[in-house]
Design a protein that fits this description.
This protein has 220 residues and is α/β, with parallel strands linked by helices. 50% of the residues lie in helices and 16% in strands. The structure holds 2'-deoxycytidine-5'-monophosphate.
């Protein structure tokens, strides 16, 4: 069974997707981490983010692996190296939306995501899972929250990673990414018509997960 979870940054997708996958005993796939890993590779190789041909070439050469840990967390490997923390750096966040709007990049990563998903039961989280990667997913969710709450959640998350950030900058960055992710030509962030919309602004994580779990167990 495929569970697709889409929505804007900071809506709580990763948190609920991880817990939901653990409770269901499914594999958890964070597709945003894959776009981040490729962005890291581009920056480390001093490739101009606007040079689509070079970035496409890089995508074809990149080896990106996701490995689940027993505690439910996920480690991301780029060309055999654990980059789980590196991909959360502000410089990656700044450029990832520009890298992920490139058509060739999406073709390569969507193919990888389908291969991972076809291995068995999994929860995939991203922006285009229910619309493009797995349009036939058995369960689709679109997780949203007010922009203020999303910025505050992302700010706390980054503080937890010991990053020296200001909430106002986090809010600006989120607004900028939302704009690029929702307006790009290829696979923009959209709610699939058959996705269940959940606004998490006023809901607890537990409440959201319980609701999703019930819906996943309904008719298979
Ligand atoms: O979920 P995240 O913030 O880690 O995602 C990072 C970026 O990757 C996000 O700004 C847009 C892009 N992305 C995408 O285009 N498609 C996906 N399926 C997942 C992420």
């Amino acid at each position: 069974m495929i569970v697709a979870i889409d929505g804007p940054a900071g809506a709580g997708k990763s948190t609920v997707a991880k817990i939901l996958a653990k409770k269901l005993g499914f594999l958890y796939i964070d597709t945003g981490a894959m776009y981040r890993a490729l962005t890291l590779k581009a920056l480390e190789n001093n490739i101009d983010i606007n040079d689509e041909n070079k970035i496409n070439e890089l995508a074809l050469k990149a080896s990106i692996d996701l490995r689940g840990n027993p505690d439910g967390s996920l480690s991301i490997f780029l060309d055999g190296r654990d980059v789980s923390l590196d991909i959360r750096q502000p410089r990656i966040t700044r450029f990832v939306s520009d890298v992920s709007k490139i058509k060739g990049v999406r073709q390569v990563l969507v193919k990888m995501q389908r291969e991972l998903g076809e291995k068995g039961d999994c929860v995939l989280e991203g922006r285009d899972i229910g619309t493009v990667v797995f349009p036939d997913a058995q369960k689709k969710f679109f997780i949203d929250a007010s922009s203020q709450v999303r910025a505050n959640r992302r700010f706390k998350e980054l503080k937890g990673l010991n990053q020296d950030v200001e909430e106002v900058d986090v809010a600006k960055d989120l607004a900028n990414r939302d704009k690029i992710d929702s307006s790009r030509k290829v696979s923009p962030l959209r709610k699939a018509p058959d996705a269940i919309y959940i606004d998490t602004t006023e809901l607890s994580i537990e409440g959201v997960v319980e609701k999703m779990l019930e819906l996943c167990k309904e008719n298979g």
